Amino acid sequence: MARILLLLLSVACLHTAGYQKKYGYGVDQPEHLTGIQGGSIEIPFSFYFPWEFTKDPKISIAWRWKHFHGECIYNSNTHFIHEHFKGRLIVNWTQGQTSGVLRILNLKKNDQTTYFGRIFLQTAEGMEKWQSIPGTNLTVTNNTSTPATLPSTTTATPSTHPQTVTTEGMKDEPKSGLDPQTIIVLAVAAAVFLAVVLGLTVFLGWRRKQGQRTKAETPAREPLENSEKRESIGHEGQYMDPTENPKDNNIVYASISLSSPTSPGAAPSLPVQKNPQEETVYSTIKAK
């Protein structure tokens, strides 16, 4: 029984579609769309007819929901919007065009139903009206991983196969950049490297200063040592060894002569005398 009903329904649909094509007018819109609860959805539509536009064409758009003879939710002629869609329904369509978009904002779970576009055209023969027979079946889901509809642009003949995009594949894409642990390791390594370079620079500077100081002290010590040698030689020349007078066997004479420090090797501490040279004689009695 169920198979017979499906067969009859299919025949009726084919007959209706052939009827529209035969007479050259109809409404095209996607059969199925999926939206996310709280998001928005766009239902593109277009229509065609065999009559020519008059000088002042009068076309109006209406939308029904739930079934073919369901309630009207929008009418462009009277600017009517159903109470259920107040502030959430927008129709992008301009007078004289044959295509547009029905947009529903802030999707709710009870928005899940079928929507039918309906056209009214004033011709020379009178008012003509027709609408989409299968309509667009809208599915609303609250799962963000399910495919979401991709908003389509307004075209003259919208596709009956809506384009969808999923968000599941985006979660598996590798993240660009470095993780925090890698950044910390690199920062520590850079700090250690800078510390080593700074320490090596300070050490080399200190070694260079020490080398310059050693070279400066070495030449200064050489004049001082030469001066001490000359002073020692000068003083040794001034002292005289005691000699015995052959005539006086029991008396030993010794003399010390002091001269003025005219030579460079003289000690600076010796006082300068008025006479260039003074001599002091000492004598001792030699006991036999």
Automatic annotation (TrEMBL):
Is Membrane given among the entry's keywords?
yes
Region span, Disordered = 139-176, 210-288
InterPro entries according to UniProt: Ig-like_dom_sf, Ig-like_fold, Immunoregulatory_rcpt-like
The cellular location(s) given in this protein's UniProt record come to: Membrane
Composition-biased stretches, type Low complexity, lie in: 141-167
Instruction: Point to the regions of Basic and acidic residues compositional bias.
Output: 214-234
Write the signal peptide boundaries.
1-18
Q: Where are the transmembrane segments?
A: 183-206
What is a biological process (GO) this protein takes part in? Answer: signal transduction
GO CC list: plasma membrane
Per the record's keyword annotation, is Zinc included, yes or no? no
For this UniProt record, give its keywords in alphabetical order, as a comma-separated list.
Glycoprotein, Membrane, Signal, Transmembrane, Transmembrane helix
Give the compositionally biased regions (Polar residues): 272-288
Protein topology in the membrane = Single-pass type I membrane protein
Task: Show the PANTHER family listed in the entry.
Answer: PAIRED IMMUNOGLOBULIN-LIKE TYPE 2 RECEPTOR (PTHR15549), PAIRED IMMUNOGLOBULIN-LIKE TYPE 2 RECEPTOR ALPHA (PTHR15549:SF14)
Protein name, as recorded:
Paired immunoglobulin-like type 2 receptor alpha
Organism from which the protein derives = Rattus norvegicus (Rat)
